[in-house]
Request: fold
Amino acid sequence: MAHGPSPDDPYPIPGVQRTGFLKPFITRPNIVVGDYTYYDDPRGPEHFEANVLYHFEFNHDRLVIGKYCSIAADVRFIMNGGNHPTDWLTTFPFPVFGHGWEAAMPDAWPARGDTVVGSDVWFGYAAIVMPGIRIGDGAIIAAGSVVTRDVPPYAIVGGNPAEIIRYRFDEPTIARLGELKWWDWDPATVTRNARALCRGDIDGLDGPA
Reply:
């Protein structure tokens, strides 16, 4: 019996090259992507890493994306290398250009930590996520949004800066989904529950034995 496509298949939809599971395309050690998360781009999913911007190894920050996320074309993640000091008298990064300016090199550059995305998050077209943001499980990021602050689980956010529009479910349902964490179930269990998941039938979910 089939239990869904392999998460290691870069092109799980037959005949479609613009949509692919993202994990097989990741080459950077500082980007971590969970199983079944996909990226859709007319140029092909292999272009995803080009949208993770200012991601320099000396900052030691990571982009961590959970499982079963849906990422539309041109979604961008701005990492900590894009930050400039704001407590200097200038925002111009003199030290990085050298030729005598390296003497002004600071002990540390501004950093807000890892950017962490939960599981089952949907990113609309051309959304932008700023450095160090944490996005909860089940959230929806509307097309064109600029996410400048953390997003709670199952919140729908939109705008620039992105604000909470509403929550997808009531608090008891959100709490129960947080306990179930269906995205961590094995493929056979997820397949058995796919119909209930797609119908919004939380009472019909039947987790691992």
